[in-house]
Design goal:
- By secondary structure, the chain is mainly alpha-helical.
- The chain has one domain.
- It is built from 9 helices and no strands.
- Helix 5 crosses helix 7.
- The radius of gyration is 22 Å and the shape is globular.
- It holds the Pfam family DUF222.
- This is DUF222 domain-containing protein.
- InterPro entries: DUF222.
Length: 159
């Protein structure tokens, strides 16, 4: 009777009781997760650069050169972004100076543009640091739900 719990425990011990095929699949999965994290970090840093460009377009009003109606329109045409994605880039660009921790996390590749856009859309500057920390561990849907459950005052108008 005493050996049953021990046997049962070893069924779930990857290093001791799995087949070579299962161990191989597990190693491959770990490699794919690591690659995904590396590429996502690079993508996040590239998105941060796009936010920087959008901020320059806004600050110097260069987005209107060439007949573009808005900074978002400029990014849709020049960067091939969807209108929604361009809206997120511009929203983050407009608030980046007040969203210091979230912007720094995007530049470091620790948060995605989608995560920072949730913060930029709904979180006041006074609370952005406390939201940025758990955002590093949250999916975008989780972050949206968490932010929606708080009664933050509306962020200032960005237009």
């Amino acid at each position: 009777m005493d050996s049953l719990p021990l046997s049962f425990e070893h069924l779930y011990d990857w290093g001791m009781s799995t087949s070579p095929l299962a161990q191989s699949r597990h190693r491959r999965q770990q490699q794919l997760w690591a690659r995904t994290a590396t590429v996502a970090g690079r993508l996040n840093r590239a998105q941060a650069e796009l936010v920087d460009i959008a901020a320059e377009l806004i600050e110097d009003r260069h987005w209107g050169d060439g007949g573009f109606k808005t900074p978002e329109h400029h990014l849709v045409v020049r960067a091939g972004l969807s209108p929604a994605h361009a809206g997120d880039v511009v929203r983050v660009a407009r608030r980046r100076s007040e969203l210091v921790e979230a912007s720094a996390a995007l530049e470091a590749g620790e948060l995605s543009l989608d995560q920072v856009a949730v913060i930029a859309r709904a979180v006041p500057a006074s609370h952005q640091a406390s939201v940025t920390a758990p955002a590093r561990e949250a999916t975008v849907p989780q972050l949206r739900r968490a932010v929606a459950r708080h009664a933050f005052p509306a962020p200032p108008a960005t237009r």
